[in-house]
Structures are given as structure tokens and as C-alpha cells.
Amino acid sequence: MDGPDPRMIQLVMTLRGGGVTDFGVLAAIERTPRDLFVPGRFVDQAYDNRPLPIDCGQTISQPFIVAHMTQALELDDRCKVLEIGTGSGYQAAVLSRLSRRVYTVERYRTLSREAEARFEMLRLSNIVTRVGDGTVGWPEQAPFDRIIVTASAPGRPVEILAHLKDGGIAVAPVDRDGKQFLVRYERSGATFTEEDLMEVRFVPLIKGEARAL
Questions:
Q1: What is the reported pTM?
Q2: Which site in 117, 147, 171, 199 is 20 to 30 Å from 179, CA atoms measured?
């Protein structure tokens, strides 16, 4: 019987050394084979702690960022999660192992279909996909316990945050002063407290109709 993949072991050790302390998050990363989520020409780099190109000019995020965003959400198995920006599906797959259900919106039909095939291959049946404009969230399924945005907004993503439950948590990259910061939001009634977690680099969040690519 094959033992644990040494590349995965090294990746998890790197994440722990980088401040990811939530064992549930580390276990979810360990159970999610990143090589299934990258184009074939990058498979040999799948377990490097770096972002990689995917179809439609998008990227799969660095595992360090995926882990830190997931940790910041403080998930449990009762959480209903909204993800804006399915991309390869890697982040949604990690989220699905820690929450009750994940609703994920993608602008590009090609990416959404590819992600759906990966979810089916991994038997992740608690992920619901949609092709559409992520800037408006998913009103029909709101409110959500947790929200994660995987593209950078030009300011506080007010329309998306409106879908967050009272007491809920959201994380999103936001442009500010020529830089991008990963921001953690927590809702209390009509008030949102926010905390900058780190400087990041994401593709921009684009408003408008879904693309048939």
C-alpha cells in the first residue's frame, strides 16, 4: 500500500510553519489533492507553495493563502458558505470538508464545468455551483454563515456582505492605496467590524454577465 505523498507532507509542514494552526484546516488541505486542480503542464509544481495559472487567464491560489483564508472563517460543520470565484475549485473543495454546504459562483462557464467534474471525482456532494456575476452574490440562497471572495474588490464588497448572517464572518481581498489586503469582516446587526490580515495579490473581481468561455 502506498504511503502518504511526501510532497503533501512537506506542504502541510510549510503551512504550519507559516502560521496555519487549525488542525481541521490542515487536515482538509491534506485530504484535497491539489494536482487534480492544476493544468497538466503544471502537475509537477502542484504541491509547491505558489499560485499557478489555470484556464481563462485565472489562477489557483497559493496553498498558504487558501489555508489562511479558510482558517480566518472559523468554520464548523453547520456552516452554509458562499464562495465568490470558483476558479479551479480547489478552495471550494477545501471548504466543503469543513462546512455543511458550499455555494460557489464562477463567471467563466469553462472553469465552472471543470470544477464540477473535479468535485464529482472526489465525491464532494455538498458543493453547489453557479455560473453568474459574483459581485451580486447569490441572493436566492442568502443569508450565509460564512462568505469568501477569491478576487480583489475595489473597496468593501457591500453587496456581497449584505448576504452575511448576523454573527457571520467573511474574508475578501480588497484594493486600497495601490495595494491589496486580505480583510476579515464580522457582522453584528448592521455593523461590520473589519481586520486586515495580510497583503495579498488576487485577480480583480469583475462585475457583469457570466462569460461563455
A1: 0.94
A2: 147
Total residue count of the chain as it appears in this document: 213
Cα atoms in the Cβ-side hemisphere of radius 13 Å centred on 129: 26
Q: Which CATH number does the domain housing residue 36 bear?
A: 3.40.50.150
Rounded Cα gap, residues 67 and 30, in angstroms = 11
In the chain, what's the furthest Cα-to-Cα distance? 54
Q: How many Å is the Cα radius of gyration of the chain?
A: 16
Query: Which one of the listed residues 61, 88, 112, 152 is annotated catalytic?
Result: 61
Please give the grid coordinates belonging to residue 35: 494536482
Whether 176 is covered by a domain: the verdict is yes
Cell numbers placing 100: 455543511
**CA 14, 18, 20, 25 torsion-angle sign:** negative
Q: Domain of 121? A: 6-199
In a domain, 1, yes or no: no
| Alpha carbons 174 and 195: distance in angstroms, whole number | 12
Tell me, yes or no, if 112 is annotated catalytic: no
**85-137: pLDDT as tens digits:** 999 999 999 999 999 999 999 999 999 999 999 999 999 999 999 999 999 99
Q: With beta carbons less than 8 A apart as the criterion, state whether 114 and 55 touch.
A: yes
Q: Is 178 helix (H, G, I), strand (E, B) or coil?
A: coil
